[in-house]
User: What shape does this take?
Amino acid sequence: MSRERSRPITVHEPDRLREWTRELRGRHVVGARYRNAPGSSWPDGNSAEAIHEVDMDVAIMLDNGASAVVSWSMDGLVEGIDLEIRQNSGTTPELEETDVTSTPEWQSLVNQVVNEVAVAWQVPNDGCPNTLWAVRLSLSEGSTIVVALGEIEGDIVQYQPDALVVLFDEAAARAYQPLASAETAFGTAIGA
Assistant: This one.
């Protein structure tokens, strides 16, 4: 499922979303990595209780050796999230990568199974199609992980199209809703 150029997933591309979802369901989470812009490191002030801010992308490592990658992406005025399955989760040379598996938030999720994938859509700008802005994984022990466009500003999550937030708290995910979206970051489950 690798592409040469990242682009946001729109409502007109259901196959891209279904393929990513199919690869995750039933898999165990074994770790996570955050990719940051050159010269930056994580957390570098980008961690609040139960919320992490990430510069480039979140790679959720799975028990089959693949990584489910969530990235922010823009294509003109279309702002959204791109999803990819990478078979090799090695470091991209121009980006810095931080293994965050040992953080308390991720450590509690290791070995849990992905039971459900949900997404939230937005119309980022006039004339743009509905575009993916948040993705949620519901896990076997009742935990959730939400990766969404956004940033942390004074302990408050706010919309930002060129950064990601990882929300480990269901209440925070249900509370976060940019103006351009009809639903919160908790999203709606994708059918099988």
